[in-house]
UniProtKB/TrEMBL annotation:
It comes from the Bacteria. This is Uncharacterized protein. InterPro entries: 6-hairpin_glycosidase_sf. It comes from Caulobacter segnis.
Amino acid sequence: MGDRALSVKLLEEGYARFESGRFGQILEYRPDRFPEQTRAGPFFANMGGFLYSLLLGFPRLEPNGEALETWSQAPVVLPAGWQAIEVDRLWIRGKPMKLVARQGEVARLTDVDLRSSTE
């Protein structure tokens, strides 16, 4: 919605407070809200939702059957303090791609040349 400060608050409440222990395990229940619940984890649904927001939500990518250039039509809105999300390799339609999503810009997906990355 464009509220970068609120985005940070919601990330803290909806994800970070589920993290526990020295290995950063993501729990099923927040210990501060449900102290009676067993600390069970890792809880992959929470981790998957967070990953989904990093790859599609914040970059504002909308995968479709059209060209990759059509997947991103609006400027990226990241949480306050974040400048960019970059992923060096995603496999899209059988090809390695790089994602660059910078605050205020339209996200870009570009081809990755695997030959140059192994030399």
